[in-house]
Structures are given as C-alpha cells and as structure tokens.
Amino acid sequence: MPSWGAATARWFSAGREAMSYDVVIVGAGPAGLAAAIRLKQLCRAADTDLSVCVLEKGAEVGAHVLSGNVFEPRALDELIPNWRQEDAPVRVPVSSDKFWMLTKNKAWTLPSPFDNRGNYVISLSQLVRWMSSKAEELGVEVYPGFAASEILYDENQMVNGVATNDVGIAKDGTKREIFQSGVELRGRITLLAEGCRGSLSEKIITNHKLRETGQGQHQTYALGIKEVWEIEEGKHKPGCVVHTVGWPLDMKTYGGSFLYHLDDRQLAIGLVVALNYRNPFLSPYDEFQKFKQHPAIRTLLEGGTVLQYGARTLNEGGFQSIPNPVFPGGAIIGCSAGFLNVPKIKGSHTAMKSGMLAAEATFQTLVEGTSMDLYWENLKKSWIWEELYRSRNYRPAFEYGFVPGMALSAVEHYIFNGKLPFTLKHGKPDHEATDMANLHSPIQYPKPDGQVSFDVPSSLYRSNTNHEHNQPPHLRLKDPTIPESVNLPQYAGPESRYCPARVYEYVSDENGDQKLHINAQNCLHCKACDIKDPKQNIEWTVPEGGGGPGYTVM
C-alpha cells in the first residue's frame, strides 16, 4: 500500500481503510492532471491549501493514455505559460499538413481542411507523465495502480468519493493469500476524468440523467487503432502531418487515417473507424492492417520497426452530446464528458480546459461557498463551447454517406464557418446501427505479411498488456445466453471482430456448438465492446489496478 500522504483523516469503514481529501480526482490523463495543477495554483495564489489526490488505474501515469496526437497548446499556454522553458515533451512543431483521398492504389491530394499552424506532434502518454511531475511538485498526490470501481455516497445521496476495488480475489471469488481490501477515498468534491466511456462516469450520467439536462442527444463513438514505428532516416520528416479519407473503408462507413512524424525517426500511424458502421463482418483491426498495404503507406513503413501498438475509443458526439457535467458532490471532466472537436480531430486541449474550469469552480465551492454549477455556467461561456458549436454539424453530416458528408461539411467549413442556421441530429446509437448478418457478405481480409501488417498476438505483445489471470472477469455479460442466442445467429458474432485485441472468440465445445470465450487478459481497455455490442450485453468494469496496456510512447 502507498503512504497516503496528505489525507486529512484516516479510519476504517466497512472493513476498508478510508481516507479523506478535499478533492479526489479519478484519472491521471490531461483533464484530471490539468484540474489538479489548477487547483494547487489557485491555492498558492490565495495562500490557502486543499488536499488533492489523483487516482490512476494504469500501472504508471500514461500507461493507459493513447491519442494521435497533433496537439494544440492553447490550454497548456493558459495552465503553464512557461512550459517551453520547463522541458515539456512538446518539441516537434507541425511542418507540413496534407490531406489525401485514398483509392485502392492511388493517393489524391485534396485541400487540407485542417489548420495546424502552431500545433505540435506529440506523444500524449509522455505529456501526461510530465504533467504528473508538475502536479506533484505543487503538492498533488498521484497514485497510479489503483482502479476506482465504486462511487461513494453520503446519507443525503451526495457523491463523497470513490472506492478502489479489492485486490487478490480469485476467479472463483475466494480470497487469495495476497488479498487486500479496497480503499475508500472520501472527497468533499469528486472529479471524474476517466477518459472516453468512463465506467463510473457512465453510471453517474445515467443515474442523474445528465444527458437529458445537458444537450440531450446520445454520445457517438469511434475506435482508434494506432502503431508507433521507427522508420528509415530518409523517409522521416519531423512535423509532417498527413490525414486520409476513403479506402479501405466503404462509402457508408465514417473514418479516416493519420500519419504523424515525431522526432527520433518515429512515426505515429493509425486508423479511426466510427462505431456506427453497419456491416457486422467489418473488423477495424483488419481494416488497419489492410490500410498499411496501400502503396503510398507501405513504402513509408518498409524497412521500419513497430515500437508499440494500442487502441482506444473516442467521443464523436460533439456539441449535441455534451451532458450536464455537474452532479451532487462533483463533476465530470475531459473525454468522460466528451469535448472532442471532430473536424479538428483534437480533444486534449478541450479536455485540459474543462479540467481547469472544473478546478476553478471546485476552488470557489470549497473556499468561497459557491456551487459546482459554476463549472457548467463557465463551460458555456468558454472557447470549448464556441469550438464545439461551430463544428457541431460535421460528424452528423456523414449519416447520409461519405459524398454527402464531405459536401455538407465543406459548405459548413468554407462558406458558413460553422454558422449554419440549423443543427443536425445524430443517427441511431452505435450499438443499434449494426445490420443483421444476412444483409452483408463476409469480408475476406488478406493475411498479415509480418512486415507491415501483423496478426493480433504480435500486436498485443507490442502493447505491453498484462492482467493478473486469477481474478474475477472484468468483462461481464448481463445475460450469458445472448452471445449464442442472438449475437452469433443474427449478427455472426461481431464481438470477435470489433474488438482490436481478440478478447472475444467463438470456440466449439465438446458437442461442436459455438460458445463465446472471453480472453479478458488481452483487454486494451478500449471500451469498444461496452459501446458496440448490439444488445448492450457487455459491461466493462475495472480490473485490478495496474492491469491493462503499458503504453510509453502513445
């Protein structure tokens, strides 16, 4: 157990150790750490102090953080104005910005809709590690390896903290010799910064009807699959940014790819596939492997080496899907609420800004006696709101297909500058968008060549994913009969394809019947299963703290 340093009080509650902080933050990503840093800055300015604790389920800060990432430094400029003198890992300015339309063998250059002047190509996992060190210098306590699994309430049903899960429980539910009870972390204010589709955040949003009191529409998602390569010196162009649309995705599936040249001959390459795709035979992982075989991409990768692999879902609902982020006793910040700017393909700057706004409201609530509703009010007055409002019609325009989506988004971007006099609605929730299998033909994907395309086990090895095998499953079926009675006969078992880690596979039992087998130890914590399962039958919960991927350069 760590030394829980600045906890203001410590006791035992229902057999668990309990500690009290002024502010408990769940998640050491850009939003959570920005909130922690801003809180301590405000304390110093007012010559007061608040105890702040940040919990992180990854074994290290940054281990579960994955993003493209072309970074817009606007929020960082506000948070730490002298970051350029503080050795922040933000060193590679964008040097060129290209936009390609891919067909099977050609790459057609289009006018770039992006404006990345002044932005940087970074590793977000490296940036949050740096932010964590800055937070600790200010007195924030950061505890990696602890998974918050439970929301705690007081007698008035106000959230007053979280509890971490028990460690050392066997698959059969018995206590192993290494058993340790979870810890209760009580907070006067609790900030949830779990990232996209945060498990606690989703419960709070549902229980408190925060979507209904926010912008009202459901969230929509995409799955991003990414590799970081070390490529040959002559092919490396630091700061070069390329985005593509088109092949290999079909004309009804929204998505695109990215290639970002970092320093040290590193190249970030990825494919983003919207999870409202219709064809149940589509495999985002195999689409990504196929994409790398394009002549314009393969020549860049040949002779190189893959350093890391990973996957993560991202919010694409934008303005229409913002929930009311305030609940009794706390607030939701960052991608758990969903502030990604889809046409920019950026969410780190908005996540950080939301954390800063929540920190300011938290400080005023605890020190000056105001209300956390101030966060919601200030969010609506901020540049986050303006950004997302102006980009609100981009993603739903593609509900009508690729060509109408490109045309409508071009009119919106180039002519109306985000000020069309109407707001489009999203289509069906992602899990309802999947067609029955009999409406499609199976997709025959090429076999990996081991040079630029790879099988799943090889990729998983590069993700550094690891879980304790002897623990209760963290991927839970609400109805264990649905995979064999619904998903397999009606949708051809889509969970065996939408998961980028082959967690789900159908295997024959002794009678030759296909049964779903869950390889939970492979899980990348991407949350695709929690989103895309046609009957919403899979519930993603946190495994033991420290489990999951071990990203270092993502």
Task: Draw up the topology in text.
Blueprint lengths: L8 E5 L2 E11 L3 H17 L5 E5 L13 E2 L2 H6 L12 E2 L2 E7 L4 E4 L9 E2 L2 H14 L3 E4 L3 E6 L5 E6 L2 E3 L5 E6 L2 E10 L6 H9 L13 E10 L9 E7 L8 E7 L4 E9 L9 H8 L3 H7 L3 E11 L10 E2 L2 E3 L15 H21 L4 H9 L1 H8 L3 H4 L4 H14 L40 H7 L12 E3 L4 H10 L3 H4 L5 E5 L5 E5 L9 H5 L5 E3 L14
Account of the 3D structure:
The protein is globular. Helix 1 runs parallel beside helix 7. The model has no long low-confidence stretch (mean pLDDT 95). The protein has 15 helices and 25 strands. The longest helix is centred in the middle third of the chain and has 21 residues, at 348-368. By secondary structure, it is α+β, with helices and mostly antiparallel strands. The strands form six sheets. Strands 1, 2, 3, 9, 10, 11, 14, 20 and 21 form a nine-stranded mixed β-sheet that branches. It has a seven-stranded mixed β-sheet with strand order 7-6-16-17-18-15-19. Strands 4-8-5 form a three-stranded antiparallel β-sheet, with no helix packed on it.
| Proportion of helical residues | 25-40%
Which geometry do the CA atoms define?
globular
Radius of gyration: 23 Å
Q: What's the β-strand tally?
A: 25
Major sheet size, sense and barrel closure: 9 strands, mixed
Task: Classify the secondary structure makeup into a structural class.
Answer: alpha+beta
What percent strand? 15-25%
Head-to-tail CA distance between termini? 28 Å
What's the mean pLDDT score?
95
Number of helices: 15
Report the uncertain regions: none
